[in-house]
């Protein structure tokens, strides 16, 4: 079989969700990936409540308990200062991407997708669309879904580049040996461990996933920042690490062209504050497949992108709001005010945790932040003007010299 309704390139969370949804919707699906599963994947492996919820929506079952470890405590740090420890946060789950992604890939194949994993793509035509594999096999489809990550081959074929290097993020990560207290240790998030980014320490039973990520253009020496972060956490600063690009909220406003759709990291669907990508990868894969199902049912494959764009609106809205809020967290002029606000406001911390849990969206966090904005701006202006006022303050008059004769 070489002619399919849908070809999905990439069998990670976005591609697996797309392939599973399309196959369950009655479409013939080819699932392609250069890797054979299970395979290693560089990622912190944090599954927020939103990720957990999306998994259940797509597959009709909770994430298998064997794939995750659950934490309910977290410590927040920012720019070298501890902000808070919260011991009753909504559940945050840890997963190893090797086994988590393999589970979703197997669900897609069991659901009816034809397995072409372990296949290199020799040629890609996004106008047909069709794919030629390394062994010469030629596959055609009415809809193509590119879920092939931040270095997407599909995005390059559509737009000439997979991402904008001036706006993309970059992350470094290690799997460090597990500490004796890993099972009880809280998660740790460090805002500002990298410029316009953050660091993370996710203690798991078998290892500690440690990494930092930030906007690439603002971090010319990310390796030095990573070494400093490892040393701060008590690990060998010379530990070898791996790096990868992070589409830090630099999403594509048009996630494809006609019957070719981009999902997950290939579409830049990564939260610019939390760095969460798994949730939006799964959800966008599902939405892309649903758009394909609707377009093909109407006999209008070229309308797939139009339908997909409509479905993506809530995700795009959340990412735009997160990008605006990122200014208030990472811009140097606001850093001190952010630290004070987050440390002193139980409301802000609570909202942030509910956001991670998937209970609320960024519009509610934005409204709470904007209510504090006048006070924050006043503090910033006062700090900026204070040195000027001190310099311009007139010298006290000499009482004797100024006494009239």
UniProtKB/TrEMBL annotation:
Name used for this protein in its record: Geranylgeranyl reductase family protein
Gene3D superfamilies for the chain: FAD/NAD(P)-binding domain (3.50.50.60)
Annotated GO MF terms: oxidoreductase activity, acting on the CH-CH group of donors, NAD or NADP as acceptor
Organism: Pseudooceanicola sediminis
Pfam family, one: Lycopene_cycl
Organism ancestry: Bacteria, Pseudomonadati, Pseudomonadota, Alphaproteobacteria, Rhodobacterales
Domain of life: Bacteria
